[in-house]
Amino acid sequence: MLPLTPRLEKLKDRLFNIEYHDPGIWYFQDMNILAIKGNEFMMDEPVVVRKAYAHQHICRYLPAVIRPDELIVGRPNQNSVGWGSVLPKYYTEEEGETAARYELDECSVWGHHPPAFDKIIRQGVTGVKAEIGEALQAQLSSPEPDETALNEYRAMLIALDGLTVFAHRHADEALKLAQAETDGTRRQELLEIYRVCQRVPEYPAESLQEALQSYWFTYAIVNSGGEFIPLGRADQYLSPFYQQDLASGRLTREQAVDLLGSFLVKCNERIIIDTKKAENHFSFGLFSQGVVLSEEDAQSRINGTGGFAQRALMWQENEDANSEANFNYGQSGNDWLMNCMVGGVHPDGTDATNDVSFLLLDVMHSMHLLFPTMGARVHKNTPESFYQLLGGIMRYGQGEPIIYNDETIIPGFVETGVPIEEAREYCNDGCWETLIAGKSHFSYAHVMNLRCLEHVLFRGVSLSNGEKEGLDTGDPLAFQSFDELYAAYVKQMHDRIDFQCQRRLENFGLSYMIAPDPLFSAITYDCVKKGRDISQDGARYIFHLILATGLADAVDSLAAMKKLVFEDKSVSMQELIDALKNNWEGAERLRMQMINAVPKFGNDNDYVDEIAVRLLRDFEAHVVDWRTKQDRLKFVCGIGTFENYAVLGRDIGASANGRRFGEALAPNYSPVAGQDVEGPTAAMRSITKPDLLRFYCGTPLDISVNSNEFAGEAGAQRMADLVRSFCDLGGQVLTVTSTNAEELKDAKIHPEQHKNLRVRMGGLSAYFIAMAPAQQDNIIRRFSR
User: Fold this and answer.
1) What's the pLDDT tens digit per position in 347-393?
2) pLDDT over 70 (residue 782)
3) Which residue among 28, 284, 543, 651 is the one 20 to 30 A from 661 at the CA level?
4) In what side-by-side order are the strands of the sheet with 440-448?
């Protein structure tokens, strides 16, 4: 563990003891820039230009804050995935009502994908504006100028000017503080902050401090505009400045650590440990990608009485601890989809691991910070010292860093048409999915594998609501073989894939009507070239991920039916259907038989693993059909639940693997909890039997290990070996949470003694003491086996 400098000790102390207990201020509530005197001219502008002026408003009026001891300055507006966003409105009432009919509002920016932060760092606002200016001149010189492109370019330029305003306001604040500062050392630091903020992000960065400040200002304003985004490949963006400063003598290594630590602290200032103090700012349009609503649903959105806003996961004092709201409250409240990738390879294929890769991981670990969620790319030429660092950090648990295997992910991108040089530049999005940094628009949809089986057994009817939502694939009592059952299952699965792909093709681009993002677009490759917004077809790659969700539960259920219903004939189809319909009431003996008499996925048993191979092959082939029959969207495959494995299970009836109605699904690509009895290596062998090259957008295996088994230096080596084995077997994405039930139970009783304890939640990491009691109990059960 890297010893903390005196500065970082102070920053950490302030963070944990002050910032984490401050619910923050949500600026720009209930305000519309069109109502401000002097802004009447905006009424004649298109929505995309008005959105750019909203960006400018944020930059002019979001407070310029500089705190003691910090070297990187600025704070985004208060917002979060779990509690929503507040943006200045910039549209008319009529425009708002029209958008509401598609479940859209100003918060319907999708986020998840990172812009090209390195573009701003290397070129500055002036360089990006020059590029836009050339494109604008070319359009104006055209015999038939593209009005959409002209509006986009004007909007980009307005939004970029806001970034410079934001920086200069911090420069002014730094100068004011320097004049009043009595400590000579701090005065010089404030004067340097003044100089840096005068230069970046307006001009290209020339030092590590300038690069970090440009990076942070850009993130802060893009995020304050509603985008929940990752940070991309931070070590690759920053390493040239770090190396240059060390070589020139501008910085010592300790000073570089102070700068990196100051940057990382900024990423965590909005965390709220006592999540009951948080404010609810959900809107119905948050994360909506657009869908045509019925008139009744549209009116509920317009009137503010329906939609996503009503499902905000806030603590409800009048509800049971296991209610949906109270079970999940807090788990995504402290989340901004702020991931960060280190390691990997350069575009030419050589190892890209560098000193900044090590330092970012080391400082994050030493300060016990939650954000950014760190991902580490490894490959056949990854230095042994990097594996040792990973093992040393991961043995302490916390679910980080997430491991990404270049050897299985890069070829997948290449197979779908991404040039290998760009494929080698991949990073993660806001959870664990992979994309090309700064060049991608990314979205996803779930195909609920277990529900597909439910629809087979109940002829398209869902047990949770009694409504017909799937196909009628015939009377299951008439199936004479497992192959007939499986064929019906594939029809249901393909029907759901068809639904998700067709809906995305029909609805993609709808959000542009109300939630364009010209600032994000200005720093995303090909948006300038095409003259299109990120919410349209601007990005170079438009990935839509179709996720196989609840895979392990579906595979275990199919295996149970194959063996007990069709092979052993010890259970009749009618008997099983009746038990599922009654949620196993009065059929506990049968339930135990379905659980214990059949091999389970995750134990390196070909009987059940081959069903997973077959299912995923049929899943992927159908997604590929959708990708090849049109060229607008890249439909790609993954396997996962994110952190929603409990929520997703609540609407699915009892299943043939012994699971009861409403119980959680197995998270991501992991075995069902308690069924992976042969240990982590066997689980790794099971999950790598399918061809994961075709699921390169993400197949995370989340494993939980007892920290007592990974203690000391020997434990660090064991963890490093575990990571290497996972990659050698062909795994793609791995998360490891290493703790024990005793520590978790004590943290629930004495939270003040476990401020640093973090756990992995499928798609995010969370401080254990900030989670809901019922969710804490669920985590404890994972480590009580």
Assistant:
1) 999 999 999 999 999 999 999 999 999 999 999 999 999 999 999 99
2) no
3) 284
4) 440-448, 541-549, 634-639
* Cis-peptide into 201, omega within 30 deg: yes
Q: Say if residue 689's pLDDT is above 70.
A: yes
Both tokens of residue 493?
């699965």
Run of H or E residues at 404: strand 402-405
Rg over alpha carbons for the chain, rounded to the nearest Å, is 26
Phi, psi of 343 (to 5 degrees): 85, -160
Rounded to the nearest angstrom, the gap between the alpha carbon of residue 261 and the centroid of all alpha carbons in its chain is: 23
pLDDT(319) > 80? no
Mean pLDDT, the chain, whole residue set: 93
The token pair at 781 is 């059960």
The closest of 782, 761, 774 to 668, measured between CA atoms, is 761
Compute the distance between CA of residue 236 and CA of residue 344 in angstroms, rounded to an integer. 10
User: What would the two tokens of residue 351 be?
Assistant: 């190892």
Whether residue 488 contacts residue 478, with contact meaning beta carbons closer than 8 Å, is answered with no
What does residue 542 show for φ and ψ, rounded to 5 degrees? Answer: -115, 100
What backbone torsions phi and psi does residue 573 show, to the nearest 5 degrees? -60, -40
Tell me which residue of 715, 667, 726, 12 sits closest to 396, measured CA to CA.
Answer: 715
CA distances from 664 to 21, 651, 771, 776 (A): 31, 10, 17, 14
Instruction: Classify burial at 747, counting beta carbons within 10 Å of its beta carbon; exposed 0-12, middle 13-18, buried 19 or more.
Output: buried
pLDDT 10s digits, 461-495 = 999 999 999 999 999 999 999 999 999 999 999 99
pLDDT confidence of 309, banded at 50, 70, 90?
A: very low
Contacts of 459 (CB under 8 A, 6+ apart): 472, 473, 474, 475, 476
Summarize the confidence of residues 563-579 as an average pLDDT: 99
Spell out the SS3 assignment of 667-679: CCCCCCCCCCCCC
Q: Write out the DSSP string of 360-375.
A: HHHHHHHHT---SEEE
What pLDDT, in 10s, does the model give residues 649-674? 989 999 999 999 999 999 999 999 88
Q: Render 640-669 in DSSP notation, one character per residue.
A: --GGGHHHHHTTS---TTSPPTTPPPPPTT
Helix, strand, coil share (%) of the chain residues, nearest 5: 50, 10, 40
| Secondary structure letter of residue 267 according to DSSP | T
Q: Rounded distance, CA 477 to CA 14, Å?
A: 65
pTM: 0.94
Residue 503 CB neighbours (<10 A): 15
Q: What is the largest CA-CA distance in the chain?
A: 86
Residue 314: both structure tokens together: 């806030």
| Cβ count near 308 (within 10 Å) | 17
